[in-house]
Specification:
Shape of chain B: globular
Order of helices and strands of chain A: HH
Strand order of the largest sheet of chain B: 5-4-3-6-7
Strand content of chain B: 15-25%
Number of helices of chain A: 2
Structural class of chain B: alpha/beta
Number of strands of chain B: 7
Shape of chain A: elongated
Helix content of chain A: 40-55%
Radius of gyration of chain A: 19 Å
Low-confidence stretches of chain B: none
Oligomer: heterodimer
Radius of gyration of chain B: 20 Å
Number of strands of chain A: 0
Low-confidence stretches of chain A: none
Largest sheet of chain B: 5 strands, mixed
Strand content of chain A: under 5%
Order of helices and strands of chain B: HEEEHEHEHEEH
Protein backbone atom coordinates (compact mmCIF):
# COMPACT_ATOMS: atom_id res chain seq x y z
CA UNK A 1 0.00 0.00 0.00
CA UNK A 2 2.84 2.29 0.96
CA UNK A 3 4.77 1.68 -2.26
CA UNK A 4 1.60 2.31 -4.29
CA UNK A 5 1.17 5.63 -2.55
CA UNK A 6 4.80 6.68 -3.16
CA UNK A 7 4.76 5.61 -6.81
CA UNK A 8 1.34 7.20 -7.32
CA UNK A 9 2.54 10.46 -5.77
CA UNK A 10 5.70 10.42 -7.92
CA UNK A 11 3.66 9.83 -11.09
CA UNK A 12 1.20 12.58 -10.20
CA UNK A 13 4.06 15.00 -9.53
CA UNK A 14 5.64 14.08 -12.86
CA UNK A 15 2.42 14.92 -14.70
CA UNK A 16 2.87 18.51 -13.54
CA UNK A 17 6.25 18.76 -15.33
CA UNK A 18 6.09 20.84 -18.46
CA UNK A 19 8.80 21.55 -20.97
CA UNK A 20 9.56 25.13 -21.97
CA UNK A 21 8.30 25.69 -25.48
CA UNK A 22 10.55 27.35 -28.10
CA UNK A 23 8.49 30.56 -28.05
CA UNK A 24 8.70 30.77 -24.23
CA UNK A 25 12.49 31.00 -24.01
CA UNK A 26 12.74 34.78 -23.77
CA UNK A 27 13.57 34.73 -20.06
CA UNK A 28 16.05 31.87 -20.48
CA UNK A 29 17.81 33.84 -23.22
CA UNK A 30 18.56 36.77 -20.89
CA UNK A 31 22.27 37.32 -20.08
CA UNK A 32 21.67 36.81 -16.34
CA UNK A 33 20.28 33.34 -17.08
CA UNK A 34 23.47 32.16 -18.77
CA UNK A 35 25.88 29.85 -16.97
CA UNK A 36 28.76 32.13 -17.84
CA UNK A 37 28.98 35.90 -18.10
CA UNK A 38 31.97 35.88 -20.42
CA UNK A 39 31.25 33.71 -23.46
CA UNK A 40 34.23 35.05 -25.43
CA UNK A 41 36.55 34.28 -22.52
CA UNK A 42 35.10 30.78 -22.27
CA UNK A 43 35.70 30.19 -25.96
CA UNK A 44 39.32 31.28 -25.57
CA UNK A 45 39.75 29.04 -22.52
CA UNK A 46 38.24 26.08 -24.42
CA UNK A 47 40.54 26.73 -27.37
CA UNK A 48 43.61 26.62 -25.13
CA UNK A 49 42.32 23.64 -23.16
CA UNK A 50 41.47 21.59 -26.26
CA UNK A 51 44.83 22.29 -27.88
CA UNK A 52 46.70 21.28 -24.70
CA UNK A 53 44.61 18.14 -24.23
CA UNK A 54 44.48 17.28 -27.94
CA UNK A 55 40.77 16.68 -27.58
CA UNK A 56 37.59 18.65 -27.87
CA UNK A 57 34.03 18.68 -26.63
CA UNK A 58 32.47 17.62 -23.39
CA UNK A 59 32.84 21.05 -21.85
CA UNK A 60 29.17 21.91 -21.62
CA UNK A 61 25.61 20.76 -21.87
CA UNK A 62 22.79 21.62 -24.22
CA UNK A 63 21.03 24.66 -22.87
CA UNK A 64 17.99 26.69 -23.67
CA UNK A 65 18.71 27.58 -27.24
CA UNK A 66 16.06 28.72 -29.63
CA UNK A 67 15.66 25.22 -31.04
CA UNK A 68 16.88 26.27 -34.44
CA UNK A 69 19.90 26.06 -36.74
CA UNK B 1 2.64 -9.63 -5.36
CA UNK B 2 0.38 -9.28 -8.40
CA UNK B 3 -2.09 -7.00 -6.63
CA UNK B 4 0.35 -4.15 -5.86
CA UNK B 5 1.74 -4.42 -9.38
CA UNK B 6 -1.78 -4.01 -10.77
CA UNK B 7 -2.24 -0.99 -8.53
CA UNK B 8 0.92 0.61 -9.87
CA UNK B 9 -0.13 -0.21 -13.43
CA UNK B 10 -3.53 1.44 -12.81
CA UNK B 11 -1.82 4.51 -11.43
CA UNK B 12 0.49 4.69 -14.46
CA UNK B 13 -2.50 4.50 -16.81
CA UNK B 14 -4.26 7.25 -14.82
CA UNK B 15 -1.14 9.42 -15.05
CA UNK B 16 -0.98 8.91 -18.81
CA UNK B 17 -4.61 9.99 -19.10
CA UNK B 18 -3.88 13.07 -17.00
CA UNK B 19 -0.89 14.07 -19.14
CA UNK B 20 -1.67 16.93 -21.49
CA UNK B 21 -2.22 15.79 -25.07
CA UNK B 22 0.64 16.41 -27.46
CA UNK B 23 -0.60 18.67 -30.25
CA UNK B 24 0.66 17.95 -33.74
CA UNK B 25 2.67 20.70 -35.39
CA UNK B 26 1.27 22.51 -38.40
CA UNK B 27 3.19 21.21 -41.37
CA UNK B 28 3.12 21.18 -45.17
CA UNK B 29 -0.30 20.33 -46.60
CA UNK B 30 -2.17 21.39 -43.45
CA UNK B 31 -4.68 24.20 -43.36
CA UNK B 32 -3.05 27.22 -41.67
CA UNK B 33 -4.95 27.76 -38.41
CA UNK B 34 -6.92 31.01 -38.41
CA UNK B 35 -6.05 33.70 -35.87
CA UNK B 36 -6.61 37.33 -35.04
CA UNK B 37 -3.95 39.32 -33.21
CA UNK B 38 -3.31 42.99 -32.40
CA UNK B 39 -0.70 45.01 -34.26
CA UNK B 40 2.50 45.45 -32.27
CA UNK B 41 2.66 49.23 -32.67
CA UNK B 42 -1.13 49.82 -32.62
CA UNK B 43 -2.58 47.27 -30.16
CA UNK B 44 -6.11 48.59 -30.65
CA UNK B 45 -6.06 47.37 -34.28
CA UNK B 46 -6.70 43.67 -34.83
CA UNK B 47 -5.44 41.81 -37.89
CA UNK B 48 -6.41 38.31 -38.92
CA UNK B 49 -4.74 35.85 -41.24
CA UNK B 50 -7.89 35.74 -43.35
CA UNK B 51 -7.90 39.53 -43.84
CA UNK B 52 -5.09 39.19 -46.38
CA UNK B 53 -6.07 38.73 -50.02
CA UNK B 54 -2.54 38.01 -51.19
CA UNK B 55 -1.92 34.91 -53.30
CA UNK B 56 1.07 34.02 -51.17
CA UNK B 57 1.43 34.79 -47.49
CA UNK B 58 4.62 34.48 -45.51
CA UNK B 59 3.87 33.96 -41.84
CA UNK B 60 6.95 34.59 -39.72
CA UNK B 61 7.17 33.87 -35.99
CA UNK B 62 10.03 35.76 -34.37
CA UNK B 63 11.30 37.21 -31.10
CA UNK B 64 13.79 39.92 -30.17
CA UNK B 65 15.84 37.44 -28.11
CA UNK B 66 16.19 35.02 -31.02
CA UNK B 67 19.60 35.44 -32.68
CA UNK B 68 18.71 34.10 -36.18
CA UNK B 69 15.74 36.50 -36.27
CA UNK B 70 18.27 39.33 -36.60
CA UNK B 71 19.23 37.82 -39.93
CA UNK B 72 15.77 36.81 -41.10
CA UNK B 73 13.98 40.10 -40.56
CA UNK B 74 16.13 42.26 -42.92
CA UNK B 75 16.18 39.44 -45.49
CA UNK B 76 12.39 39.20 -45.46
CA UNK B 77 12.02 42.99 -45.71
CA UNK B 78 14.31 42.88 -48.76
CA UNK B 79 12.29 40.05 -50.31
CA UNK B 80 9.03 41.92 -49.75
CA UNK B 81 10.51 45.02 -51.42
CA UNK B 82 11.74 42.89 -54.30
CA UNK B 83 8.47 41.03 -54.92
CA UNK B 84 6.05 43.83 -54.01
CA UNK B 85 3.04 43.55 -51.76
CA UNK B 86 0.24 43.01 -54.32
CA UNK B 87 0.48 39.24 -54.46
CA UNK B 88 2.90 38.52 -51.67
CA UNK B 89 2.25 39.54 -48.09
CA UNK B 90 4.46 39.14 -45.06
CA UNK B 91 2.73 38.74 -41.71
CA UNK B 92 5.13 38.70 -38.78
CA UNK B 93 4.06 37.44 -35.37
CA UNK B 94 6.21 38.51 -32.46
CA UNK B 95 6.21 36.26 -29.40
CA UNK B 96 8.10 38.50 -26.95
CA UNK B 97 6.46 38.46 -23.53
CA UNK B 98 7.14 42.19 -23.32
CA UNK B 99 6.14 43.91 -26.60
CA UNK B 100 8.47 46.83 -25.71
CA UNK B 101 11.47 44.55 -26.38
CA UNK B 102 10.10 43.87 -29.86
CA UNK B 103 9.45 47.56 -30.56
CA UNK B 104 13.01 48.43 -29.54
CA UNK B 105 14.31 45.68 -31.84
CA UNK B 106 12.17 46.85 -34.79
CA UNK B 107 13.46 50.44 -34.62
CA UNK B 108 16.56 49.27 -36.46
CA UNK B 109 14.65 47.69 -39.35
CA UNK B 110 11.38 49.63 -39.76
CA UNK B 111 9.47 46.91 -41.62
CA UNK B 112 6.58 47.88 -43.86
CA UNK B 113 4.67 44.65 -43.28
CA UNK B 114 2.22 43.97 -40.45
CA UNK B 115 3.91 42.91 -37.24
CA UNK B 116 1.45 41.35 -34.81
CA UNK B 117 2.00 40.62 -31.16
CA UNK B 118 1.35 37.31 -29.42
CA UNK B 119 2.85 37.82 -25.92
CA UNK B 120 1.07 34.84 -24.40
CA UNK B 121 2.15 32.59 -27.28
CA UNK B 122 -1.40 31.43 -28.03
CA UNK B 123 -0.97 31.44 -31.80
CA UNK B 124 2.57 30.04 -31.45
CA UNK B 125 1.07 27.14 -29.49
CA UNK B 126 -1.67 26.76 -32.10
CA UNK B 127 1.04 26.34 -34.75
CA UNK B 128 3.17 24.18 -32.39
CA UNK B 129 6.40 25.87 -33.43
CA UNK B 130 9.34 23.46 -33.34
CA UNK B 131 11.85 26.31 -32.82
CA UNK B 132 12.46 30.00 -33.28
CA UNK B 133 12.19 31.46 -35.84
CA UNK B 134 9.69 29.36 -37.75
CA UNK B 135 8.00 30.60 -40.88
CA UNK B 136 5.21 29.28 -43.07
CA UNK B 137 4.45 29.95 -46.71
CA UNK B 138 0.68 29.85 -47.14
CA UNK B 139 -1.05 29.73 -50.52
CA UNK B 140 -4.24 31.53 -51.58
CA UNK B 141 -6.38 28.63 -50.34
CA UNK B 142 -4.93 28.90 -46.84
CA UNK B 143 -2.79 25.78 -47.09
CA UNK B 144 0.74 25.56 -45.77
CA UNK B 145 3.04 24.99 -48.74
CA UNK B 146 6.38 25.26 -46.97
CA UNK B 147 7.62 25.45 -43.40
CA UNK B 148 11.04 26.81 -42.53
CA UNK B 149 12.80 26.34 -39.21
CA UNK B 150 15.67 28.55 -38.10
CA UNK B 151 17.43 30.98 -40.40
CA UNK B 152 20.82 31.28 -42.06
CA UNK B 153 21.74 33.91 -44.63
CA UNK B 154 21.47 31.50 -47.55
CA UNK B 155 17.98 30.35 -46.49
CA UNK B 156 16.38 33.38 -48.11
CA UNK B 157 17.16 31.84 -51.53
CA UNK B 158 15.12 28.72 -50.69
CA UNK B 159 12.28 30.89 -49.38
CA UNK B 160 12.39 33.13 -52.47
CA UNK B 161 12.29 30.06 -54.71
CA UNK B 162 9.17 28.73 -52.98
CA UNK B 163 7.43 32.09 -53.06
CA UNK B 164 8.24 32.75 -56.71
CA UNK B 165 7.13 29.23 -57.75
CA UNK B 166 3.85 29.71 -55.93
CA UNK B 167 3.33 33.19 -57.42
CA UNK B 168 3.97 31.81 -60.91
CA UNK B 169 1.57 28.91 -60.33
CA UNK B 170 -1.17 31.27 -59.14
CA UNK B 171 -0.53 33.55 -62.16
CA UNK B 172 -0.93 30.55 -64.50
CA UNK B 173 -4.26 29.67 -62.88
CA UNK B 174 -5.68 33.11 -63.65
Amino acid sequence: MKIEFVVGLAILLLTSCESVQPWERGTLARPEMQLSRDQLGDALYDQVYYSKEASSGGAGAAGAGCGCN
Amino acid sequence: MIKPMLGIFNLAITALILLPPVASAVSVGNEAPAFTLPLLDEPEKMVSLASSNAKVRYLDFWASWCAPCRLSLPAIIKLQNELGSDQFEVIAVNVDENPKDALRFLKRYAPKHNVLTDPKGKVAAQYELPGMPTSFIIDGNGKVVYRHLGFKEKDIDIIRQHVVTLLEASADEN
